[in-house]
Design a protein that fits this description.
Structural class of chain B: mainly beta
Largest interface: A-B, 23 and 29 residues
Oligomer: heterodimer
Shape of chain B: globular
Distance between the termini of chain B: 37 Å
Strand content of chain A: over 45%
Number of strands of chain A: 11
Strand content of chain B: over 45%
Number of helices of chain A: 0
Order of helices and strands of chain A: EEEEEEEEEEE
Number of helices of chain B: 0
Shape of chain A: globular
Chain lengths: 113, 114
């Protein structure tokens, strides 16, 4: 059974600081997704990482994937308040890449002015 | 603008009632999904459909069934609602073919069973 673990579960950080959210998973996969969720809202796709060594960046967020270590990271650079949200990673466990995802439990990020 | 629409945002149902949650997507996607989201558990896959009339069980199918009679519509059915099915339900869709397609989620349906 695939397990996906995120840490930390809760993170408060000051504006302007850098931090990293970690996503570990238990079985082989080379397809990993990151999502953002605002309170009471649906999930917004941030990144899709499809191979070992993949790195993607959008604004102050950068995601990477190490399939050998079964680890993905979401790095936040110079945090700003509007990045406050819950971030989920999810691993596609299907054999045919049809996006049957197993999600982590989420990291609730609060940016403090 | 791509859209996954869940018709009911907030529902309150009684134990034992039959509950229908409807989801419609306008992107001609082959794949559709139902997840439930609970605090501390993340999202868990209930059912998955990769084509009309086709379905696969996800991780937690017990107490649920689904229906996909048309490509754009995927319904989740709670045959006899129970209090432990109080949750937020999220529908999603994606295109088949190459892996790593973006998955689009609906706004969610908050179900309370009393």
């Amino acid at each position: 059974e695939l397990k996906v673990e995120q840490n930390p579960l809760f993170l408060s950080m000051q504006e302007g600081k850098n931090y990293t959210i970690y996503c570990n998973y238990s079985t082989t996969s080379d397809r990993l997704y990151w999502y953002r969720q605002d309170p009471g809202k649906s999930l917004e796709s941030l990144f899709v990482l499809l191979s070992n060594g993949a790195v993607k960046q959008e604004g102050r967020l950068m995601a990477s994937l190490d399939t050998k270590a079964r680890l993905s990271t979401l790095h936040i650079t110079a945090a700003v308040h509007d990045l406050s949200a819950t971030y989920f990673c999810a691993v596609d466990r299907s054999n045919f890449g049809n996006e049957k995802l197993t999600f982590g439990t989420g990291t609730r990020l609060t940016i403090i002015p | 603008d791509v859209k996954v629409t869940q018709s009911s945002r907030y529902l309150v149902k009684r134990t034992g009632e039959k509950v229908f949650l409807e989801c419609v997507q306008d992107m001609d996607h082959e794949n559709m999904f139902w997840y439930r989201q609970d605090p501390g558990l993340g999202l868990r896959l209930i059912y998955f459909s990769y084509d009309v009339k086709m379905k696969e069980k996800g991780d937690i199918p017990e107490g649920y069934s689904v229906s996909r009679e048309k490509k754009e519509r995927f319904s989740l059915i709670l045959e006899s609602a129970s209090t432990n099915q109080t949750s937020m339900y999220l529908c999603a869709s994606s295109s088949a073919g190459a892996s790593g397609n973006t998955i689009y989620f609906g706004e969610g349906s908050w179900l309370t069973v009393v």
